[in-house]
Structures are given as structure tokens and as C-alpha cells.
Write a structure and sequence with these properties.
Strand order of the largest sheet of chain A: 7-8-9-6-10-11-12-13
CATH class of the largest domain in chain A: Alpha Beta
Helix content of chain B: 25-40%
Largest sheet of chain B: 8 strands, mixed
Number of strands of chain A: 13
Largest interface: A-B, 32 and 34 residues
Order of helices and strands of chain B: EHEHEHEHEHEHHEHHHEEEEEEEHH
Structural class of chain A: alpha/beta
Distance between the termini of chain B: 62 Å
Largest sheet of chain A: 8 strands, mixed
Distance between the termini of chain A: 51 Å
Oligomer: heterodimer
Shape of chain A: globular
Chain lengths: 265, 359
């Protein structure tokens, strides 16, 4: 029988990461901490989160979950986590969706033949465009790898338009739309000469499945739907790392993303 | 102009240009409207094409515009010739005293031509419509009846077009007897890219630019943020006005899966219209209006915008409906031309910057 890890979350992280619901849905793996010290500490990803996470590691946490991390330098935190063999996982609204590994495979298999990649992120009116763009980029870069010549063409209270190119030179167009008209979601479509990949990622507030479709000359394939939120998928990954004693690649990936975001005008 | 027409007699149609659009779009659409319209005359510069296409519908054929316009059996003229002939032929059709004119888009190549057409239409009273088929699609028209203040409150507009080569759908619609020869462009030549993008706007984006303009009150202040070519044929163009973000996407490739959508989004409401591919008689677009968790779906209806165009022409010819104002047609055209010109200018700037960096 595997170990049950105790969990402690700051109130803002508790709400943003739906921590109580996730822990309740993984009752053999995680449980609320009865005392101040916990195996896993949940940190809100507001600016300064790397310091908060490093402090939690210093205080003995074996695992850290960061909910919606804002772009910031993670070098110091990565060093602390590496030294103490602490698993730091990032719970990102779209990039942490459990469909991402399959989406990544599908996109990267075809990326060399890409003609265009178009992606639209929709978030509620009033959301910070910068915050949505960071979440948007995290998901796109997760499936495509680094983007070249990334820049923002326009940013305002109702959204943004950003541009980049894939490694083969194909245009990448990223648009953010801030509106209450539709459910928040991320859509991505990469076209190749005879088909492509389309991806729709829901918000993590419920276990709506992402839709990953691969279109080719012989038809269209809907990859298996996974009725699990990005939050729960993050925690399952954490459990695997804790059991195995391994360090996830989340911080390394996030450093690449932060570098991309920092170059944006 | 309007005149009394025997309600039991279909109106005679003459078509200038018998290429794939006439063969695969207009003749099948007219075949569905036999009680309203009948093809009387087909003109094409290639006599064998004119004769062959005319024979399909039992019409007269000729190789000259004058012969068709002087044919008294022709009451409505459809202009489906190459773009550069449109203005001259629209004017000639008006002067010939026809009851209505359909001109394939674009109806002119510059604002001067558009103004001349407008003046002749006003002088002769002959109604003109431009073949922007999506504006006649029952899905679009149903959305129009239900979208409330969305055209005024929209802040984001998207037009997305993914299509296989035309031949795929032409072959589902008819048996084509001629096709224009295709070439292999040299995409390393900036002039080729400029030409491809201008052609993309005036030949493909133009289908939906009247829709976009309907949602863009400040359309005269359009600015191109970036324009990029998509190989082998397509574009990614980011536009802005002071109040709107407008994104145009298109890719024509070898996929079997078409997508043709128009979206307009405000803070509180959104419209998405999914159009059926051109050429096939696959019914109308479906319009989806959303306001948070409330979704209203309109359509699909049983005919597409091309058939809608012909129904409109019949109504105009009999005086049952009034034509759009000439200003609407001129504004639609100048909007397209402004985007095409600004796109080419943007490419020239990008090219100059790239050359500067290399130097």
C-alpha cells in the first residue's frame, strides 16, 4: 500500500487550485494535514511564489504545488528543490491538462510540415491580458516547443494579438479574447497540407475533457477523452514523483516560458 | 427600375463567362429555382465552352457581351467574367436596360470604377447586387434578426477559412469542362508574396469582408498590424480599428475537411457562423449566438447564399424588393481595397526592414 501524503494550502491557493476537491478525489494518495507541518504545501502563484515555495522546502515540505504561477525567475527555487530532492509541480490552467502529452505528440509529429498554427484563448472579461497570455503561451509552448520571433502586436483590456513562427518558419498567430460570452477555453489549430491537429482545452474548474483531433487523408481521429481536470492531473503527477523520489521537469519548462515572456514587448 | 412581370413566367437569365463558377455554382443554383428563373443565354470568349455550357440548360450561346446584352430574352445579367472586366460589363448591362445585374465580387477594381457604376445604376434605375454570397445566406440573415446590438458592441472579429482546392467541391457539384491552368509560384520572390496576399484578400477574404464591415462601424480607420503568407495559398492577417481587433485566417491546401467560420465577440455576447463550402448545395450556414451559458442555434436552412442571391435578384427584378444602396456596395469594395493596399504596404515595410537588417 502506498503512502498517503499530508497537504497544507494557503487560503488563496486552496480556492484557486480547488485543493480540497482534488485531495478528496485522491483519498488514498493525499489527505489534509492535522498539524502545521505537511508533506505537500500548496502555494499560490502570485508574484513572489518562488520565495514562498523555497521557504516551504526549507521547512521540510517534500512536495510543492504552485497554482497558476506568474512568470518569474525560478533558478534559485530550482537549486533548492534539486538539493533537497523536493518535487515542485506547477498547476497551470491549460498547460496542466491531462490531454497535453497526447496533444504534444500529435503536434510535434506534424510540426515539420506545418503551414500555420492559430490559437485563441478566451477568458472572462476583466481578466488581466498579461495573465491570460502567460497561460496561453505555457500551453502552446508545451505542445510546440520554443517559438521563434515571438512578439505582441497589440494588448488591451479586451484581449491581445501575438505573433511568432514555428521552427520551420510557419506563421503562429495567438489571440486572447476577454469576454463573458463564452466559456473560457484555449483552442489551437495547426494545419498541414493534408490535415492537421486541433486542440480544445477547457478550464480546470470542472473535469471537462479536452478535445484533441488529428485530421489526415484518411479521416479524423478524436483521441481518447480524459474526464479529469488539470488540477487533479497535476496532483497525480506529484504523487508519482513523490513515490519514485524523482524531480519533475516543471521548473525547467517554466524557465523557458519565462524567458519567452520576458522578451515580449 | 421595376416593371410588371408575369408571375407565372420565369425571368430570363444571361451569364457572361462560363467558367467553373458558372458551371458549378450558378447553374446548379438556378436549377433549383426553375419557377423563378431560367437561363436564356450563355456567353464565353471560348465558343466551345459557351456552346457546351449553354446546351446543358437549353440556352442560346455567344462569344460577345453585346450579343448577350441585346438578347431580349435576357432580363437579368450575371457577370462571372475575370475581375478586370466587371466594371465595364456592369455598366453595359445597366445601359442595356436589364431588370437586375449580379456581379461577382469584386464588382470593381478601384473606387473610381465603383463610383462610375454607382452613377450609372442611379441613372438607369437598374438594381445591382454583388455576389457576396454569405450576405444572402439564410444562416447569416437569421443571425441578423437575432443579434441585437452585437454589431455595435463587438470588440473582436475573426474570419477563418480552410478549404481544399476548388476542384474537390466543383466535382461534387457538376461535371466541369474547363479549368484555369495552375502555376507553381516562386515564393522566394517578395512580389509573388505580395500578389498572393492581394489575391487572397480580393479573391477569398472578400467573401466575408462585408460581414466584417457590418460589425465594424469605424471600418474607414483600418490598420494592418501584420500580414503573413501561408503556403501554398493563404494568409494570416491581423487588423485593428480604434474599436475592433480583426483577425483573418485562410489556408487552401489538400485537406478534405473544410472550415469556413465568422465570429464576432463582445464583452457579453458572441456570434459564430459556420458556412457550408462553396459549390455544393449543402444548405445554409449555422449561426450560434452565445451569452454566457445561454446558446441559441439558428439553422441550418435548406439553401445556401448563392441560391439566396438568385432569389434576391428575382425579387429585385420584379420590384418586390429594393436593392442595397450603392454606398453599401462602394463601402464594401473600398474596405476590401483598403485592406489589400495596407497589406501590401505592410509587406513592403517588413521587406525593407529585413533588407536593412541584412545590410
Amino acid at each position: 500500500m502506498s503512502h498517503t501524503y499530508t497537504v497544507k494550502a494557503a487560503p488563496e491557493a486552496q480556492a484557486a487550485g480547488a485543493v480540497a476537491l482534488v485531495v478528496a478525489s485522491l483519498p488514498e494518495s493525499f489527505g489534509p494535514a492535522a498539524e502545521a507541518k505537511a508533506d505537500v504545501v500548496v502555494v499560490s502563484g502570485q508574484p513572489g511564489w518562488t520565495i514562498e515555495a523555497a521557504t516551504a522546502i526549507d521547512e521540510g515540505a517534500r512536495g510543492i504545488v504552485v497554482v497558476n504561477p506568474a512568470p518569474e525567475n525560478t533558478d534559485s527555487l530550482a537549486a533548492v528543490a534539486e538539493r533537497s530532492n523536493t518535487a515542485v509541480v506547477l498547476d497551470q490552467r491549460w498547460a496542466s491538462n491531462p490531454a497535453m502529452p497526447a496533444a504534444e505528440d500529435a503536434v510535434r509529429t506534424l510540426a515539420g510540415r506545418a503551414a500555420m498554427l492559430d490559437s485563441v484563448a478566451t477568458a472572462p472579461a476583466g481578466t488581466s491580458a498579461g495573465e491570460v497570455l502567460a497561460d496561453h503561451l505555457a500551453a502552446v509552448v508545451r505542445v510546440t516547443g520554443p517559438l521563434d520571433r515571438l512578439r505582441v502586436l497589440h494588448r488591451g483590456p479586451q484581449g491581445y494579438t501575438a505573433t511568432a513562427v514555428l521552427a520551420n518558419g510557419a506563421p503562429v498567430a495567438l489571440q486572447g479574447i476577454l469576454s463573458d460570452a463564452r466559456p473560457a477555453a484555449l483552442q489551437l489549430s495547426m494545419l498541414v497540407d493534408d490535415g492537421g491537429v486541433s486542440l480544445t482545452l477547457p478550464e480546470p474548474s470542472a473535469a471537462w475533457p479536452a478535445r484533441v483531433k488529428v485530421t489526415g487523408p484518411h479521416g479524423e481521429l478524436l483521441l481518447p477523452t480524459l474526464y479529469e481536470s488539470a488540477h487533479r492531473a497535476t496532483w497525480r503527477r506529484l504523487k508519482e514523483h513523490l513515490d519514485a523520489g524523482t524531480v519533475p521537469s516543471d521548473l525547467r519548462r517554466f524557465a523557458e516560458l519565462t524567458e519567452s515572456v520576458s522578451t515580449l514587448t | 427600375m421595376s416593371s410588371h412581370t408575369d408571375a407565372t413566367r420565369p425571368l430570363g437569365v444571361g451569364i457572361l463567362g462560363a467558367g467553373p463558377v458558372t458551371q458549378a455554382i450558378h447553374l446548379p443554383s438556378l436549377a433549383r429555382l426553375g419557377d423563378l428563373l431560367t437561363v436564356r443565354h450563355i456567353m464565353d470568349v471560348d465558343p466551345s465552352v459557351a456552346g457546351s455550357v449553354a446546351a446543358r440548360v437549353g440556352a442560346t450561346h455567344s462569344t460577345s457581351v453585346e450579343a448577350l446584352l441585346s438578347d431580349p430574352a435576357v432580363e437579368i445579367v450575371a457577370i462571372c467574367s475575370p475581375h478586370q472586366f466587371h466594371a465595364e460589363q456592369v455598366i453595359a448591362a445597366c445601359r442595356a436596360g436589364k431588370k437586375a445585374v449580379l456581379c461577382e465580387k469584386p464588382f470593381a477594381m478601384n473606387a473610381g470604377e465603383a463610383a462610375r457604376i454607382s452613377a450609372v445604376s442611379a441613372e438607369t434605375g437598374v438594381p445591382i447586387i454583388v455576389g457576396a454570397m454569405h450576405t444572402f445566406d439564410p444562416g447569416w440573415l437569421a443571425a441578423q434578426d437575432n443579434w441585437g446590438d452585437l454589431p455595435e458592441t463587438t470588440h473582436t472579429i475573426r474570419s477563418s477559412i480552410v478549404l481544399p482546392p476548388n476542384a474537390r467541391f466543383e466535382d461534387f457539384a457538376t461535371e466541369i469542362i474547363t479549368r484555369p491552368a495552375g502555376g507553381t509560384p516562386d515564393y522566394s520572390d517578395p512580389e509573388v508574396i505580395k500578389g498572393a496576399l492581394r489575391g487572397g484578400i480580393m479573391g477569398l477574404a472578400i467573401h466575408d469582408l462585408p460581414l466584417i464591415r457590418r460589425f465594424t462601424p469605424d471600418f474607414k480607420d483600418i490598420e494592418v498590424l501584420e500580414a503573413r503568407h501561408v503556403r501554398p495559398f493563404g494568409y494570416v492577417i491581423s487588423l485593428r480599428t480604434p474599436t475592433r481587433a480583426i483577425e483573418l485566417r485562410a489556408a487552401m491546401n489538400n485537406t478534405w475537411k473544410p472550415e469556413w467560420s465568422f465570429e464576432a465577440v463582445s464583452d457579453a455576447a458572441a456570434l459564430r457562423i459556420d458556412f457550408t463550402p462553396s459549390y455544393v448545395q449543402a444548405g445554409s450556414a449555422t449561426a450560434t449566438l452565445t451569452e454566457g451559458t445561454k446558446t441559441t442555434v439558428l439553422g441550418p436552412f435548406d439553401h445556401n447564399g448563392y441560391e439566396g442571391e438568385w432569389r434576391e435578384l428575382a425579387a429585385l427584378a420584379t420590384g418586390a424588393k429594393q436593392p442595397p444602396t450603392a454606398q453599401t456596395l462602394i463601402d464594401d469594395l473600398t474596405f476590401a481595397l483598403d485592406i489589400a493596399d495596407a497589406t501590401v504596404a505592410s509587406l513592403e515595410t517588413q521587406h525593407a526592414v529585413a533588407e536593412g537588417i541584412r545590410a
